[in-house]
Amino acid sequence: MLAIAPSCDCLKRALIANALSSISSNAKEENIIVDFSVPATEAFWSLYKSGIKYVEDIIGVLPGINLKMLKSFLSPSGTNLVLGLKNKKLSEIPPADIEYLLDMLDKNYKRVFVILPDENSGHSFEIIKKSQCVLMPFVSDAVSVQNAVMLANLYSSETAHDFRPLPLKLKLDYEFHSDKILNSNEIFKNALSAGFTADFERRIFSPQYSYRDKTSEFTLALEKALDYCGLAAQTGGSADDISKKYYAGESVYRNLKNKVYGELIEEMKLFADETDEKRLKELVAEKVGAILKKLDLNLPVALSERIFKELSDDVAGLGAIEDFIKEPGITEIMVNGYNNIYIEKSGRLFKSEAEFSDEKQLRTVIDRIVAQTGRHIDEASPIVDARLKDGSRVNAVIKPIALNGSVLTIRKFLKNKLSVESLISSASISKEMSEFLKIAVLLKKNIIISGGTGTGKTTLLNAVSSFIPENERLITIEDSAELQLRQKHVVRLESRPKSTEGSGEISIKRLVVNALRMRPDRIIVGECRSGEAFDMLQAMNTGHEGSMSTVHANTEADAVSRLAAMVLMSGIDFPERSIISQIASAVHVIVQLTRYGDGTRKISSISCLNKTDDVKIFEINPVFKFNPKGIENGVQKGEFSASGFVPDFIKNASDSGINVDMGIFK
């Protein structure tokens, strides 16, 4: 590859490039001119007699065309080919695309003549580094000479030993330059020279002009330039090496993937009714293989495998979040628009590099999730709560509610629920706390687990439920079934929202009322959110002791207030004092959960709720608490301790045949 530096005006550079190409064509050498000098090089059509192809037309489809297709586009006829800019500057084109294009041209043409632009950007320096020679034409004028010297110094400093200059002095009708300037620079001491009078310049434009004239000083100088560059091409690697380097670029890969995806969607329209995921992935693999074979791009194996996997996920899975669903350590996935995905891992949020290709693809994934649950989402009904096949909870919000694009939140269902022992080992709970909760469960005390969003309420409820004896009949009631009780005699009920016609709703409240008719020993409500709290309290107060539930609240007192507010939401016209009195009678233990600064979740306190006869109606007596002591090296420090308070039901536990180690309260 030979580069022509902007050391003279762009017309003279075009004349020189055309002359070099013509001389090479006379020797039956296939060559091409790449003119990066100025956009819209139609002004040079009288020189570029075979016409001009445009860089922009190739760059747009470059990731999806092979070498044969590229050469077919460039070489419909003749050998004197020109590739120019239509409307962009060289600096506006991705460097990876320029590098790949020039590498491919250098691999397939004997000579590639690149006319550099006037602007000296990083693009130009990279082309110089790849060139076998940089021709530096200048005219016999002091200003032109000075500019050529300055440009040579710039190239030397920016490209170091990769710069192989070859000065060419174009002698005008007059000589008006300083030999001192030329002789002071080693590069210009042995410059080639050729006459370039006004009359000679006019003759070059003539259609009859031929570069076969061996007496022409200009032709002889350019032949010397070609000899100086050497006949052997220096491609810098095989076509496979060039492809690997190019397709390693993320933007290039996305362009290629989008092209294959477009063709794949057309192919898969025939299988729109196929619902089996395994069969869909087999079809995708088959179709993608055929598309890549047709493109014949010499893709690296790793890249082909990546395209197979990601397109399989897009068409038959959950696209960009498929891997997050499968990774055990990730507990929550938050998609805030197609190109903004966060994950929660070890209690901390991380920005993911994964993204959907566009809003349409994200909507396709949301529709796929919602369709699996028999639900529907559109502009008329833009919010959906659903559940994946594995039990993960899903919330989706689309426009017009979500202003910045569709939002998808998935709280993953943990297949292996944490046991009490694992919670102790992870310092989420102390051994003494565990022993206390076990005694409370065996004594059939009603327990409320309180905490903010993502503090692990459901996880703890699962763990505490393991203390329930095997011989009891349990009924669980949830919005989205997450509880995994280990007992055998368990009845699981799940609420149902309204259908698209507005009918068929089965609320948590209705399920709680119905559960009372199913002879339960205990009722476990996954979460109290509304009027079902009243029925839950009624059940706790009327022979269904040992029931459990969770509420959203930041403190034990807030939990009581929240329960009172939810009872009022049921439409019961009771005085607030009476409602709080019922809560104090029904609830025995409140477990408060907190997420700390390092992302860990811990029981911050366990308290007993006692009814009183004074104005306060109730009192909250802490039994255990966690004492935080700051964060060191990203880890929350602190210790669990007992308050010294011993509830009456613990003191009387021996009456029920349960022995208590009173040492846990010290």
In short:
The chain is α/β, with parallel strands linked by helices. The chain is built from 23 helices and 23 strands. 38% of the residues lie in helices and 20% in strands.
Tell me about this structure.
The N and C termini lie far apart (84 Å). Strand 18, helix 20 and strand 19 (548-552) form a beta-alpha-beta unit. Residues 231-236 have low confidence and may be disordered. The strands form three sheets. This protein has a nine-stranded mixed sheet, with helices on both faces. It is α/β, with parallel strands linked by helices. It has four domains: 2-229, Rossmann fold (3-Layer(aba) Sandwich); 248-317, no CATH class; 330-415, Beta-Lactamase, CATH 3.30.450; 420-665, Rossmann fold. It is built from 23 helices and 23 strands.
Keywords:
666 residues, alpha/beta, Rossmann fold, Beta-Lactamase, 4 domains, nine-stranded mixed beta sheet, eight-stranded parallel beta sheet, 23 helices, 23 strands
